[in-house]
Amino acid sequence: MRSHFRSLSACALVAVLTVAGAGCGQDAETAQGGVTTITVMGMPAATNAKGRKLFQDQVAAFEKANPGIKVVGSDMPWDVKTFAPMLAGGSAPTVLRVPLTEPAGLIERRQVADITKEATALAEYRSLNPDIMSYVTRNGVTYGLPEKAYALGLAYNRALFAKAGLDPDKPPATWDDVRAYAKQIKDKTGAVGFGEITTNNSGGWHLTAYTYSEGGSMIEQAGGRWTAAFNGDAARRVLDRWRAMRWEDDSMGGNVLGKQEDMIAQFAAGKIGMWVTSPSDIYPTYVTNGGKPEDFGAGPMPQGAGSATLVGGTIHMVNAKATPEQRAAAVKWIQYRYLRPNFDTEAAVATAKAAAADGTPVGVPVLPIFDQATADKIYKAIAPHANVPQDHFAAYVASLGSLTFTPEPQVASQEIYAALDPVAQAVLTRRDADPAALLADAETRVNAILGKQQ
């Protein structure tokens, strides 16, 4: 399944630091004494002291402006297995912060509320990017509002490029170039040329993205039923390239069983030449981990036989068990915390000033959740406070105008990724791994997963 985000081009906006939150029952969120209490996901964990304080300050400011609403923040991240029983039992938060893959299922299971009345009353509603909104609307009914969107690309170390004799302003655009660059970095510097992540569903996530870049797809629908579609030439080219880079070129290093957090730490330490990620999303963490801003580079998603990059995002939805008062309060909170800094120039500048004063990155190029005219207006407003070397993102930004933006699998995405992790791990840890056999076995397992969803 392919979906082209027609107006999602990159624009440098302030990076909003949010991490998902924990749940409380709706019984505790009833209106008492004229006050409506809502529990909201999105409070940063205690380990992110600056982000948590910013969140709490925003809660205080929101409650002061809305004395009839009390906001209880929570920091449990979204997990399908955890939240399924919580939603069924009525103990999930009022405001759910979920990946872009989740709205379809939540809407179908009637676990989220119709917020059309509250959302369409917002002045900025009609300026929201229609392609993102297509994931949270059904038959004219609105079920969610966006926080952010991302597109995968190539993060690379400009210093290692220079040391290896490569031009830091010309990152690779094809997988053939990536392989050649990775070998040159390894041979000239001793660093890992191209890093890969394969655990916690990240191997399946990357195999999906790389398959898109080879012109393939992961699942397809026929006769109302979904089936696996990845057991073909596109995915086999991905596995063959992994095998060649790992075992012939020795450009991927021996640590191939890590997750994204591990890769960010190694990348920030200057030990990785290139890897695929969302440059906009990982840049703040890269800096927090001690990475040098001047060494960070962002390039296009490398392409093989295709012309696509995987896109995702974060959406806020309201628990179906919320009262009318809670629905109204929830939409007010979502607007205040997530929409305003991307729509209202005064709010954007205030957020940018506070972030810059804290040393938080401002001006990281992101995919706008509003239309391009709104995104351009916000960028212009916050530009004086930007502290990010935006020219280092130029190649990544330029590529987004030409690539097809392809969403993650619409059904059971995380379960599919989990089923594909062993495929990536096998190819990168066993010289004798058989890509064809691995894909055939994964196809059987994924079809079983999809069968349970239908």
TrEMBL record:
SUPFAM superfamilies assigned to the protein according to its UniProt record, in alphabetical order: Periplasmic binding protein-like II (SSF53850)
Pfam families to which the protein is assigned, alphabetical: SBP_bac_1
Signal sequence bounds: 1-22
Gene3D superfamilies, A to Z: Periplasmic binding protein-like II (3.40.190.10)
InterPro entries tied to this protein: Bact_solute-bd_prot1, SBP
Source organism superkingdom: Bacteria
Keyword Signal: yes
Keywords: Signal
PROSITE patterns from the UniProt entry: PROKAR_LIPOPROTEIN (PS51257)
Protein name, entry field: ABC-type glycerol-3-phosphate transport system substrate-binding protein
Protein species of origin: Thermocatellispora tengchongensis
Native organism taxonomy: Bacteria, Bacillati, Actinomycetota, Actinomycetes, Streptosporangiales
